[in-house]
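testing teh design pipeline on a random one, pls ignore if ur not involved
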């Protein structure tokens, strides 16, 4: 059983946002038609079949785009700036997918550029406004709709503020009261952070029994929890949803994780060997995100392979003339969570490069486990050119198609580097390695500390999103054509 299941707020918000965004798109289509046809009269007359084909493509593009974005974030706490940024990303992706669908179907209205551009532009303006209206509706009418969850809190005074503030952000819940276990009878009946103090330790269960409650949050300072078990059993028997804080889990996270990694931990409660166990681990990408990332890898890999073949054919001749031997360099590398795979590159070094590496270790410019040297004598003249232009990495598009690598990820270490890893270094391998990544577009030639490389890779993993991958790909193109980063 997962502790972090999809909440009532997330389910309801998913439906509300979908309908709101769909309505905004419908208004955008209508306004676009009025502007392009009625106001400027630049829209060519199309048949009903043409319009049906176009509207179907728009709806399909909208659905595909909607599912590419994480809809679990509490929309009420999202700031206006974040709404504008989200709207721009959403409509850019909508435009790309819509254009692709129109091209694939060879739709007649493909030549109507005014309409194709006007719809996402208007929608980009309408979405923040629509979301703002939805926020006000959720905050002001949720209670009258009778769809909110009534919440009670059982805690102590020093823990109440943070708990009340956190739960108060959830528009689908309303706190009806709080029981402060150490409170005196004089405090009962007063308020804390605007919430009525309904009971103390002596009568909090009487309050829970008589109050209209859907959920109870329990946050009390105890180590064994034995004394509170009877109360939890009774709450559960009443059909209440009980959220019980585990102090042991807090202590484990505090000792083992920083703030970022702790936020990404998945926590599940299960059973093993007849007892309950708590499972903790770094959150993996959602299935939707895994599919989207793999689809992008396949498309990008195919395009990369097609573009790479003529380029490889051109550089192969001078490369082979200068240094006889295999055209491609195959090396064993370490991928996701320690899996071995073979990476392929165009050979940019002389054949005895690996043997000569030991002699050059004293001139290593990196502080740590990676090897980097300016004017490496093992690199051929053609090799320097293909490294500077990153042409040597073109065969890795085939590794992407095979599934060994991704377009964007972390740098895969050599086996020798991996064997020297400390425990915290291995975390950078918790995602599939990539042709490019955050390190590659962050001035890799100027980074001389391996720990900085690890920090960049972990930052990429902890903040992964498909949009960040797309930005890194565009930055990579800029870095390559600007001749920056590679040595």
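output:
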């Amino acid at each position: 059983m997962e502790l972090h299941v999809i909440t009532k707020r997330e389910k309801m918000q998913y439906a509300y946002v979908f309908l709101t965004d769909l309505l905004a798109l419908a208004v955008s289509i209508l306004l676009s038609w009025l502007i392009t046809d009625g106001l400027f009269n630049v829209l060519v007359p199309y048949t009903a079949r043409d319009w049906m084909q176009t509207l179907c493509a728009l709806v399909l593009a909208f659905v595909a785009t909607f599912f590419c974005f994480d809809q679990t974030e509490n929309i009420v706490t999202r700031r206006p700036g974040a709404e504008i940024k989200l709207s721009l990303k959403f409509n850019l992706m909508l435009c790309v997918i819509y254009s692709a669908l129109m091209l694939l179907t060879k739709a007649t209205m493909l030549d109507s550029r005014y309409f194709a551009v006007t719809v996402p532009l208007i929608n980009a303006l309408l979405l923040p406004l629509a979301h703002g209206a939805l926020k006000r509706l959720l905050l002001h009418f949720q209670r009258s709709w009778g769809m909110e969850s009534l919440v009670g809190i059982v805690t102590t005074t020093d823990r109440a503020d943070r708990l009340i503030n956190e739960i108060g952000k959830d528009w689908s819940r309303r706190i009806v009261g709080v029981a402060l276990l150490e409170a005196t009878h004089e405090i009962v009946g007063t308020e804390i952070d605007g919430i009525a103090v309904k009971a103390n330790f002596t009568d909090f269960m009487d309050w829970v029994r008589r109050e209209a409650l859907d959920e109870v949050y329990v946050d009390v300072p105890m180590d064994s929890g034995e004394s509170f078990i009877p109360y939890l059993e009774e709450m559960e028997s009443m059909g209440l949803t009980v959220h019980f804080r585990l102090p042991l889990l807090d202590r484990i996270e505090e000792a083992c994780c920083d703030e970022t990694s702790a936020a990404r931990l998945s926590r599940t409660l299960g059973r093993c060997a007849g007892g309950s166990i708590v499972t903790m681990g770094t959150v993996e990408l959602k299935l939707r995100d895994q599919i989207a990332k793999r689809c992008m890898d396949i498309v990008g890999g195919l395009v990369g392979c097609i573009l790479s073949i003529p380029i490889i054919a051109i550089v192969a001749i001078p490369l082979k003339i200068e240094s006889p031997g295999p055209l491609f360099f195959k090396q064993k590398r370490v991928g996701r969570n320690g899996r071995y795979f073979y990476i392929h590159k165009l050979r940019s070094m002389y054949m005895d490069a690996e043997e000569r590496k030991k002699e050059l270790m004293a001139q290593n410019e990196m502080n740590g486990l990676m090897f980097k040297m300016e004017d490496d004598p093992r690199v051929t003249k053609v090799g320097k050119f293909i490294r500077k232009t990153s042409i040597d990495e073109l065969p890795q598009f085939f590794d992407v198609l095979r599934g060994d690598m991704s377009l964007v990820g972390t740098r895969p270490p050599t086996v020798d580097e991996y064997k020297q890893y400390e425990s915290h270094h291995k975390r950078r391998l918790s995602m599939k390695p990539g042709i490019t990544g955050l390190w590659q577009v962050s001035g890799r030639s100027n980074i001389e500390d391996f720990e900085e490389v690890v920090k960049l890779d972990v930052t990429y993993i902890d903040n992964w999103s498909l949009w960040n991958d797309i930005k890194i790909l565009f930055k990579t193109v800029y870095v390559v054509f600007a001749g920056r980063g590679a040595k």
